[in-house]
Automatic annotation (TrEMBL), chain A:
It comes from Chelativorans petroleitrophicus. The chain crosses the membrane at residues 21-46, 85-105, 117-140, 176-197, 253-269, 275-297. Keywords: Cell membrane, Membrane, Transmembrane, Transmembrane helix, Transport. This is Sugar ABC transporter permease. The keyword Transport applies.
From TrEMBL, chain B:
It comes from Chelativorans petroleitrophicus. It holds the Pfam family BPD_transp_1. GO terms for biological process: transmembrane transport. Belongs to the binding-protein-dependent transport system permease family. The keyword Transmembrane helix applies. InterPro entries: BP-dep_ABC_trans_perm, MetI-like, MetI-like_sf. PROSITE patterns: ABC_TM1 (PS50928). Keywords: Cell membrane, Membrane, Transmembrane, Transmembrane helix, Transport. This is Carbohydrate ABC transporter permease. GO terms for cellular component: plasma membrane.
Length: 305, 287
């Protein structure tokens, strides 16, 4: 299955013969990854069945599935899982939609004007995650934050809103910052995908007098479906891993209202040093993420066909 | 194409008002926070925390930037730590990934597909899951709290990414250009170095920049692996100092944030054009 992907993918490969030394060129990568990724993964699985705590002086014991049983009854785990899902799918969905709309809006600007607008629209993407977090944290300030100041001035609210200190508003507030930083990625990608639509397709649709909406819906969206799907999946995976923005904005609080799995595992491992239990959470999560990764790779293969 | 736009232009007139309004709104949404960061960094501590914020600094001052160099906190060291570890990561990843990408692109050895997808799967591992074992690994290797340890950490996610992105650039090089060199009997690694590498130089730079940017964005590894303040990176230093020094000094905070952003912006715009190609043809769209 994988082999035929490689061969169908090969553009100019008929001449390439089996050359054993080519294998050696992959070796450095494989060795490095085996040490820094493969070994830690195996080690995580081993840790997850032990009661290993870095602060304990007693050696770790094999506890079997005990960590996993504890996890099933751990309400913080379930809340973190739910938060992760909301944070990830909510942010990615909205960012993808925004990127799509922006790309369609700027599509026919042409030449220098498009490049200028594109450069400006892409800027949030070049802002480091930690800076995004602190910048929004500053703008969200209850007293003296620009967002509350503007909303008060416009008469939309009567009292300053404690954006990041409210268990209900904190997660959406963090998501807005995340969407701000991520939308340019989708904008860039959809723009590129739009320009890759063959001219003849657009022309013939125009001859058939397709309206603006008909053109977008029936002609352009089908071309954008695969790039959007693949980039969304990729962003879902990277959002699952997002630590910097949430940690620097709320540290998972107030309470556990913005705690995602990353935050939870980090707290377990590096605040209470419960490496064993943290690893069990990690393993469960690994399984879920690998399912997503599998979907992503399937989408990649379908793209190639 | 040009005739078609000419025909449709009169019809677009009312629509273009809507469109430009939307674009203006999008520009505002994208740029206002960045403006806010810059303008706050030029305000005094008092003005930055005022209850009714001023849109434009009343008396713009660079005091916040100058303050970064003079405090008890070694911001200059943070800056160089970050630049150094991120650059080193980019170089290490690209050097190891180039032959791997070349082999995966050109070879038809039996495991090429499996190896390729295994590398991609590594890319998708949750960083935090390997964090605890990686921590113990670095602890045993006595690399905890060192720049080398940090580079090792950054490599865990930079390398698989680099391999896949580079592969798409190698795929785009027609095999015919290698034929002449091969007929002359050059060994493969020389063909790679003398023929292929010069051709994919833009790809190498783009990939390197991406790895650099991702390392720059990484907060969890420096926060975990580095314990001495002087060895810390900028993003982690921002988080660690915010609880202390910058608790209320938002002007100083935003100045530090601007300094943290600057190198990334420069790197980003340096490769912007080839990045579009790299992203669409490669790592994301999957060539």
């Amino acid at each position: 299955m994988t082999a035929d992907v490689i061969t169908t993918n090969a553009r100019a490969r008929p001449r390439a013969r089996r050359e054993p030394w080519l294998d050696w060129m992959v070796l450095p990568t494989l060795i490095v990854m085996a040490v820094v990724v493969g070994y830690p993964v195996v080690y995580t699985i081993l840790l997850s069945v032990q009661d290993y705590n870095l602060l304990d002086f007693t050696p770790a014991n094999y506890v079997g599935a005990q960590n996993y049983a504890k996890l099933a009854a751990d309400s913080v785990f379930w809340q973190s899982l739910l938060n992760t899902a909301i944070y990830t799918f909510g942010s990615v969905g909205i960012a993808a939609l925004l990127g799509l709309v922006l790309a369609l809006l700027t599509e026919n600007l042409g030449g220098a004007r498009f490049r200028a607008v594109r450069t400006l629209l892409l800027m949030p993407w070049a802002v480091p995650f930690v800076v995004v977090a602190f910048l929004f944290r500053y703008m969200y300030l209850q007293n003296g934050g620009i967002i509350n100041a503007v909303l008060l001035w416009a008469g939309i609210i009567n009292d300053p809103v404690p954006w990041l200190n409210s268990a209900m508003l904190a997660l959406p507030a963090v998501m807005v910052a995340n969407i701000w930083a991520m939308a340019p990625f989708f904008f860039l990608l959809v723009s590129a995908a739009l320009s890759a639509i063959p001219n003849e397709v657009i022309e013939s649709a125009r001859v058939d007098r397709a309206g603006t909406w008909g053109m977008i819906w029936h002609i352009k969206l089908p071309f954008l479906r695969n790039p959007l799907l693949i980039s969304s999946l990729l962003m879902v995976i990277s959002n699952f891993n997002d630590f910097a923005k949430i940690w620097a904005m709320t540290q998972g609080g107030p309470g556990y209202s913005t705690s995602t799995l990353v935050i939870y595992v980090y707290r377990l491992a590096f605040e209470s040093f419960e490496f064993g239990y943290a690893s069990a959470v990690g393993v469960i999560w690994l399984v879920m993420l690998m399912a997503l990764a599998w979907l992503y790779m399937r989408a990649l293969r379908m793209e190639k066909r | 194409m040009s005739t078609a736009t000419k025909i449709s232009r009169p019809r677009l007139a009312p629509g273009s008002i809507v469109r430009w309004t939307a674009i203006a709104f999008a520009l505002f949404w994208s740029l206002a926070p960045i403006y806010w960061m810059l303008s706050t960094s030029l305000k005094t501590e008092l003005e930055a925390t005022r209850l009714h914020p001023t849109l434009w600094p009343e008396a713009p001052t660079f005091a916040n930037y100058i303050g970064l160099t003079g405090t008890s906190l070694p911001f200059v060291a943070f800056f160089f730590n970050t630049v150094l570890s991120c650059l080193l990561t980019a170089v290490v990843c690209v050097v190891i990934a180039t032959p791997a990408a070349y082999a995966l692109s050109r070879a038809r050895f039996r495991l090429a597909g499996t190896v390729g997808y295994t590398i991609l799967a590594f890319r998708m591992l949750p960083m935090v899951v390997v964090l605890a074992p990686l921590y113990l690994l670095l602890l045993n290797a006595r690399l905890l709290d060192t720049g080398t340890g940090l580079v090792v950490g950054f490599t865990t996610f930079g390398l698989p990414f680099a391999v896949w992105m580079m592969k798409s650039f190698v795929d785009a090089v027609p095999i015919e250009v290698e034929e002449a060199a091969r007929v002359d009997g050059y060994p493969r690694w020389q063909i790679l170095l003398r023929v292929v590498v010069p051709l994919i130089m833009p790809g190498i730079l783009t990939t390197g920049t991406f790895v650099f940017m991702e390392a720059w964005n990484n907060l969890i590894y420096p926060l975990t692996f580095i314990t001495t303040m002087e060895k810390q990176t900028l993003p982690a230093a921002l988080v660690l100092t915010f609880t202390g020094q910058f608790k209320t000094d938002w002007g100083g905070m935003m100045a530090a944030a601007t300094i943290t952003t600057l190198p990334l912006m420069i790197a980003f715009f340096a490769v912007q054009r080839s990045m579009v190609r790299g992203l669409t043809s490669g790592a994301v769209a999957g060539a």
